[in-house]
Prior knowledge:
21% strand, Rossmann fold, binds adenosine-5'-triphosphate
Amino acid sequence: MALSPRPALSPRATPPPRTAGAGARSAVPHTPDRGFAVAEDGTRNPDNDVLRAHDVTVTRGPATILRRMSVGIRADETFAVTGPTGAGKSALLAVLSGVIAPDAGQVWFNGRPLHTLGDRARGELRRTHFGMLDGRARLMPELTVLENVALPLLLEPGTRGTAFAAARHWMGRLDVLDHADQRPHQLPPALLRRIAVARALVVRPDVVFADEPGLGLHGAELDHLMRILVSASRSHGIALVLATDDPQVARHADRTLELRDGRPAPVRTDA
Ligand SMILES: Nc1ncnc2c1ncn2[C@@H]1O[C@H](COP(=O)(O)OP(=O)(O)OP(=O)(O)O)[C@@H](O)[C@H]1O
């Protein structure tokens, strides 16, 4: 279920300590500042996770949806958030991607605080650094496939040539280039999903967030989508964060985090 955005709470600028879920890595690409704030005291996240949530709580009315969650995502890994319906998977992705601000706790992206940004700055960050996917392709019916994939880049003025070149590159990578001049309604659902993946990757994001990316697909079609999504992300150093309750999706991840009631599920011990 999608969480509606709400305004960020007052800024916090203390970098979080390392947590068990957050592995260190030495070669996270530095992303230049693109109009979003750095913590007022100049402090930065001390290790190299591309994304880090620290002690994050999200509430909606009387309900606590995420409870003091901490997790780190490494650059170029595939990380799956799993758990049953209502566990908080979508909420965790929403907080990590800046769709919503946490009510308490911190979120860091490439060593910069996300939790201190307002709605607009988080939106700009999503547009330039993150790719977003969910269980629907969400293509524009009046545009060709090529135009749909190039669209995120066409929003920048003066980039028409490079936008179409990049779109063709990713369409080749996702095996949909033959359909460049067709319109979405002419194509089957499995192809539309791959086109949506190409569109998410075309901005060369640091992180792709995919909330049930294979919804409605099954068997070989689902495996094909996941293999191609994971390999395209990995080969370009893009972190992939999945939310899913489908083991056939989760098994493509390098690491998984299982949630129950807005926090990590207790470790099972077999008697
Ligand atoms: N806007 C909201 N207001 C109140 N409660 C909400 C809101 N959005 C989500 N919730 C509740 O928060 C909890 C976590 O929701 P979330 O969508 O993150 O779960 P999920 O694990 O992604 O589930 P699903 O697999 O069904 O998508 C659920 O109990 C849900 O009902």
